[in-house]
């Protein structure tokens, strides 16, 4: 196999990790929306914590993205 | 936050400008019935590190190495300039004695008030020192993210031969300054124009300005500053007792099994401080660099309409990432000030 082709396949495979982040963000947001529906007065606090949780879950996908960008543009 | 200047502008005027821009885009990029120029959109060469604008280094730092002027440094200087202008503008507006600020300073006031509210809910009595870090980081990252969305930001620059796979074409010249563009040769050959001037080596544009958050050096520097300041806040609030968070021998001998677990958790806390730097740096860099590449790719696939949708997306991503960077710093700082035993604090 040519090196260029292997690079493209590797970059694609690296992004598989985004599955976990997607599921995580969905769970976080779902829980937050349920909590806001039950207790609308707490919306501000819940939103802050939700954004934090999303940022943590998303960081994993960003690691995958950085790895695949490195494969594509650096190596 | 994005205040429209409502002065003499009405919705009607803006609508005609948008329509004119759409027609201009269609004219430039399509070639129906001989109308339009039929320019093929170009996929720019993507460089991960900031591109050097000059071959020789500006100066050489002893023991470190040569120092080049890169295009992300233009982004940093511009972002600094914007933040300073905002600071001076707002301070002048505040000193003018008006009750309600208007225009740009009113928008900044609204943003800072929202940030202050969030900080107050989390940080308690440490609100004031922590808020200044939160606001400074958010404003700087926001300025740098949004500066990358200005048209021309990543398209105007020096032509560098020997990198890409497009031909160089002369447009016009002002005095001795030649204005050139890179040009998709295959399209020109298809149109029957003579553009191939024996240039088989390609060329690529190295832009003058690239948003600084697409440079890993900047995001790492900001992350290190943030994490170091988190430790500083920990020491300021708890003194040397802050170190027991990492080297926890308080319960090691009194409670044999749980003491060992507590000790291990302390060591993990130490590791997590370092992983904070990594995740801070890669989150901002990954989001902004991927956003820039996304705009390039969409622009090279669909020349006219599609990119504007992604500009809107990038507008929000830039805002959200700036707020997330600042907010995480704020939350970690207030956690560091609260320490292990909140009950311990309340007993005093």
Describe the structure.
The complex is a heterodimer of chains A (75) and B (348). Chain A has 75 residues and is an all-alpha fold. In chain A, 85% of the residues lie in helices and 0% in strands. Chain A contains 3 helices and no strands. Chain A has helices at residues 3-14, 18-38, 43-73. In chain A, α1 (3-14) packs antiparallel against α3. Chain B is built from 9 helices and 5 strands. In chain B, strands 4-3-5 form a 3-stranded antiparallel beta sheet, with no helix packed on it. At the A-B interface, α3 of A face α3, α7 and α8 of B.
**Helicity level of chain A, as a percent range?**
over 70%
Major β-sheet strand ordering of chain B? 4-3-5
Unreliable residue stretches of chain B: 187-200, 342-348
H/E topology pattern of chain B: HEEHHHEEHEHHHH
Q: Radius of gyration of chain B, rounded?
A: 26 Å
Continuous helix count of chain A: 3
Distance between the termini of chain B: 42 Å
Mean pLDDT of chain B: 80
Biggest sheet features of chain A? none
Q: How many β-strand stretches of chain B?
A: 5
Total count of helical runs of at least 4 residues of chain B: 9
Q: CATH H level of chain A: which superfamily?
A: F1F0 ATP synthase subunit C
Structural class of chain B: mainly alpha
Are there runs of chain A of 5+ residues with pLDDT below 50, and where?
A: none
> Largest beta sheet of chain B, briefly?
3 strands, antiparallel
Give the count of structural domains of chain B.
3
In the CATH hierarchy, the architecture of chain A is Up-down Bundle
- Characterize the quaternary organization of these chains: heterodimer
Short summary:
The complex is a heterodimer of chains A (75) and B (348). Chain A is mostly helical.
What tags apply to this protein structure?
heterodimer; A: 75 residues; mainly alpha; F1FO ATP Synthase; 85% helix; elongated; B: 348 residues; 3 domains; three-stranded antiparallel β-sheet; 9 helices; 5 strands; 58% helix; disordered C terminus
């Amino acid at each position: 196999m040519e090196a260029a082709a292997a690079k493209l396949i590797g970059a694609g495979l690296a992004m598989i990790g985004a599955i976990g982040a997607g599921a995580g963000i969905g769970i976080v947001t779902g829980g937050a929306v349920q909590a806001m529906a039950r207790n609308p007065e707490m919306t501000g606090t819940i939103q802050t914590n939700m954004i934090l949780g999303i940022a943590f879950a998303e960081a994993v996908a960003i690691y995958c993205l950085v790895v695949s960008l490195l494969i594509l543009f650096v190596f | 936050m994005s205040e429209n200047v409502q002065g003499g502008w009405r919705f009607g005027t803006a609508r005609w400008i948008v329509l004119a821009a759409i027609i201009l885009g269609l004219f430039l990029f399509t070639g129906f019935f001989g109308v339009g120029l039929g320019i093929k959109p170009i996929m720019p060469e993507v460089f991960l590190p900031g591109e050097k604008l000059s071959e020789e280094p500006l100066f050489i730092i002893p023991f470190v190495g040569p120092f080049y002027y890169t295009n992300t440094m233009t982004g940093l200087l511009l972002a600094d300039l914007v933040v300073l202008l905002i600071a001076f503008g707002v301070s002048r507006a505040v000193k003018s004695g008006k009750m309600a600020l208007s225009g740009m300073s009113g928008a900044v006031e609204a943003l800072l008030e929202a940030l202050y509210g969030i900080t107050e809910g989390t940080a308690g009595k440490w609100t004031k020192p922590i808020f200044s870090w939160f606001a400074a980081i958010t404003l700087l990252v926001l300025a740098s993210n949004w500066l990358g969305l200005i048209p021309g930001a990543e398209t105007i620059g020096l032509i560098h031969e020997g990198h890409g796979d497009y031909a160089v074409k002369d447009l016009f010249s002002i005095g001795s300054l030649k204005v050139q563009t890179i040009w998709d040769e295959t399209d020109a050959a298809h149109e029957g124009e003579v553009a191939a001037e024996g240039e088989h080596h390609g060329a690529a544009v190295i832009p003058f300005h690239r948003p600084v958050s697409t440079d890993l050096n900047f995001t790492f520097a900001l992350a290190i500053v943030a994490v170091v300041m988190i430790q500083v806040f920990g020491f300021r609030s708890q003194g040397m007792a802050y170190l027991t968070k990492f080297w926890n021998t308080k319960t090691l001998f009194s409670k044999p099994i749980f003491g060992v677990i507590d000790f291990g958790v302390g060591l993990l806390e130490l590791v997590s401080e370092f992983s904070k730097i990594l995740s801070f740096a890669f989150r901002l860099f990954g989001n902004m660099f991927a956003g820039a590449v996304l705009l390039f790719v969409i622009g090279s696939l669909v020349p006219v309409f599609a990119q504007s949708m992604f500009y809107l997306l990038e507008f929000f991503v830039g805002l959200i990432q700036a707020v997330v960077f600042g907010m995480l710093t704020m939350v970690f700082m207030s956690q560091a000030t609260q320490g292990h035993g909140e009950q311990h604090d309340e007993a005093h």
